[in-house]
Amino acid sequence: MDFDLPEDLIAAREKIREFAKREITQDLAFKYDKDEKYPFEIREKAFKEGIINYQNPWQMLIAIEELCRQDPGMGIAATVSLFGVEVIMLFGSDRQKEKYLPLVNSGKAIMGLAVTEPGGGSDVAGLKTTATKKGDRYIINGSKMFITNGQIADFVVMLTRTSTPDSKRHHGLSTFIVETNREGFKANKLEGKLGVRATNTAELILTNVEVPAENMVGEEGKGFYYIMTFFNISRIYVAAQALGIAQGTLDRVIEHVHRMKDSGEYVDENIQFAIAEVATRIEASRMLTYKAASYLFQFKPDPKITSMAKAYAAETAVFAAEKALEITGVSGLNSDLERFFRDAKIMEIWEGTSEIEKLIITRMITKQDGEGN
Ligand SMILES: Cc1cc2nc3c(=O)[nH]c(=O)nc-3n(C[C@H](O)[C@H](O)[C@H](O)COP(=O)(O)OP(=O)(O)OC[C@H]3O[C@@H](n4cnc5c(N)ncnc54)[C@H](O)[C@@H]3O)c2cc1C
After folding, report:
1. Is 357 tagged catalytic?
2. Phi, psi dihedrals of residue 146, rounded to the nearest 5°
3. Measured in angstroms, how far is the CA atom of residue 232 from the centroid of ligand 1?
4. Which phi and psi angles does 316 have, rounded to 5°?
5. Domains of the chain: which residue ranges?
6. Which residues are in the Acyl-CoA dehydrogenase/oxidase C-terminal domain (predicted)?
7. Rounded Cα–Cα distance for residues 151 and 141 (Å)
8. Pocket of ligand 1, candidates 160, 349, 351: which has the most ligand atoms within 8 Å of its Cβ, to mutate?
9. How far apart are CA 363 and CA 369, in angstroms?
């Protein structure tokens, strides 16, 4: 058992860290947050310099952590442009893989994953968007809410209802690739989010949107399973986002403590205890995240460890950001820590709230069946 990263990943981490410090300046991070603008430029540079490399999942995990450590909004925006791609990779047809994967893997196209609806996100099986078969096409009607990249995506993978549920509500759901330039597809950008304002979030409205039947991903009625499989992958990447946020706040607290010492101020025990606790939780989060990733990347994912990593890293990000503001006080509130504090909260919400993760952990331990995002 080796707890250290291999040398090639240590070298990749150095390169990513250097890129993050050079390209994600605090001035830019402040600007993208204030303007609620998607940082296309950083994403393009990250692709060009090989920082974003989906062929190397360990490097991707570390890139997410390191970019979010520099700035969560820009870091997430730059790395989330293939959100949902695993659904096509795992369950798509050869034609879909040939058509869509090169576009997103090269950075030429942006995609998203649309599951959540205005009625709620955790209860996936309760979704109302319908896809009705008409000849060799499906007609999609409904709306999706809080969809990352919704307004800038070229296409989204969408979960819809294709038949009325039988005794099991999660039956009768199917996934489709829906190009955003189809007639009847409307995306309204959502502004004024608490955090991650550099990411693009939209409400999607679909009115009689026609897609060819060949746009269905996998088999009809199996969509719920595909999306749950996807969440068991994406939650690990969210844990890496959360790790980056927690580590980024700790970096800034350490700088603050150095400034205190330099000016002869006493660093009291409360501050020391808080730093020790945050640092310990970060270490524990990283071990859980890397363990979950290690299982996944060896094609034997463990949903229990994945949910533990996601929930614990998310709570650590929120805890670390709160402690950072307590320690730094007014100076922190007027620094980028204010943004980290706002950005941290979403970690406990998307890809399954902390409550849902805990239900999954208990379900796995007690081996019960159930549904839920
Ligand atoms: C910025 C942003 C980006 C997002 N991006 C995407 C995206 O790209 N694609 C997408 O599909 N969705 C996206 N989402 C939606 C996100 O996944 C949902 O917000 C999340 O799943 C929670 O759903 P909800 O907000 O509707 O809360 P609800 O499901 O209504 O839950 C409300 C509260 O009730 C609790 N709760 C719910 N069910 C249970 C239960 N059974 N037991 C105990 N407690 C429960 C929850 O934990 C939560 O605290 C995004 C959201 C945001 C804010």
Report:
1. no
2. 55, 45
3. 16
4. -65, -40
5. 7-79, 86-96+107-221, 225-366
6. 221-364
7. 18
8. 349
9. 7
CA torsion 339→85→54→147, rounded to 10°? -10
pLDDT per position as a tens digit, 253-297: 999 999 999 999 999 999 999 999 999 999 999 999 999 999 999
Say yes or no: do domains 86-96+107-221 and 225-366 share a fold: no
**Digit-coded pLDDT (tens) for 39-67:** 999 999 999 999 998 889 999 999 999 99
- Give the ligand 1 atom nearest the CA of 83: 8
Q: Whose CA is nearest to atom 51 of ligand 1?
A: 146
pLDDT (tens digit, 9 = 90+) per residue, 249-264? Answer: 999 999 999 999 999 9
Signed CA dihedral, 280, 284, 289, 294: sign only: positive
Q: How far apart are CA 257 and CA 255, in angstroms?
A: 5
Per-residue DSSP letter, 4: S
Pick the atom of ligand 1 nearest to 159's CA: 11
Indicate the CATH number for domain 225-366: 1.20.140.10
DSSP E strand boundaries for 136-250: 137-148, 155-161, 173-179, 185-189, 201-212, 216-217
CB under 6 Å to ligand 1: residues? Answer: 83, 112-116, 120-122, 146-148, 193, 196, 201, 346, 349-350, 353, 355-356, 359, 372-373
Residue with tokens 């997410």: 64
CA distance 307 to 370: 15
Q: Considering the domain 86-96+107-221 in this protein, what is its CATH number?
A: 2.40.110.10
- SS3 for 323-358 is HHHHHHHHHHHCCCHHHHHHHHHHHHCCCCCHHHHH
